[in-house]
Amino acid sequence: MKKHIAILPGDGIGPEVCEAATKVLSEIGKMYQHQFEFTFADLGGVAIDKSGTPLPAETLSVCKQSDAVLLGAVGGPKWDTLPGDQRPEKGLLGLRKELDLFANLRPVTIYDALADASPLKDDIIQGVDLVIVRELTGGLYFGEPRERRGEGKEQLAVDTLVYSRKEIERIVRKGFEFAKIRGGTLTSVDKANVLESSRLWREVVDEVAQDYPDIEYSHMLVDNAAMQLVRNPRQFDVIVTENMFGDILSDEASMITGSLGMLPSASLSQDGPGLFEPIHGSAPDIAGKGVANPLATLSSVVMMLTYAFEMTDEADALAEAINDVLEAGHRTADLTNDASKALSTEEMTNQVIDALTKKAVIS
């Protein structure tokens, strides 16, 4: 089975973790008789340097013609002084919009082997297994007008929060579907005590819920949700929320695991290629040093195999290999205080490949 994958290494540690992903995918291809074809393209700061735009037309074309897209990371201090519409992040926002990637999935699962890396107590994090379903193409990040005007003390900045009923309904429905698959509950997060958009959001949730009578659901204000995520994260199964709230809450939830270097994400459309990426960003301070943790990217590959290709056996094997490596005590620098025991990006990748091949031999 041949699958075309667009690889967007991007900036910072992006190229290093993407190299790890292609090595692992190639190994999975050999093990399961699949053919993964990789096409590399530029996005973000590297694209600005080469072509003057964070999202070149060629990159967009490559992505649209692929079966899935794997992204490393975008951004860095080199481009921080550029105007907002010319920065690396604008390329990622544009890609999400062009591919209509309206549903962002961010799972948060505790690995037993890493429980001591969490800043929270064991009795709080044990058993945490939740997913945040974030609306990705609307809200403050895309609303118009969006501008700065005036000079000096008279300067004014405007961002506009806009959501249509259609946009809300499709992401809320996605949230209910995931709750149904997981056999769990749904928590809808909003700010309905202040924002008109959130009041519409809450109305739509109540309406869509009628189509899912077996799913227990509730509403929660975003400030309370932020508190509850660190107070009692086990209460959550599926959280569905709008763009900015989802961005903030998912980063907060990531620290339950103890490291941003561990968490993957998937951004899905109705029927086009999905985008799979770690949530850790470009980490320019360690770029090029070979010490980046590749596991979030490899976990993003797990999501790609699951949601883009429906290769559940392959996805399960990779997920188990990652867990086996951690159970064996292997750590990158972000997961240990003992620098002498920290594996490089390449060494950790090879450990995952070894665990994969051992499973193939045993089976």
From TrEMBL:
Biological role: Catalyzes the oxidation of 3-carboxy-2-hydroxy-4-methylpentanoate (3-isopropylmalate) to 3-carboxy-4-methyl-2-oxopentanoate. The product decarboxylates to 4-methyl-2 oxopentanoate.
Cross-referenced HAMAP family: LeuB_type1
Name by which UniProt lists this protein: 3-isopropylmalate dehydrogenase
NCBIfam families: leuB
UniProt family annotation: Belongs to the isocitrate and isopropylmalate dehydrogenases family. LeuB type 1 subfamily.
Record's subcellular location: Cytoplasm
GO biological process: L-leucine biosynthetic process
Origin species: Halalkalibacter okhensis
SMART domains per UniProt: Iso_dh
One Pfam short name: Iso_dh
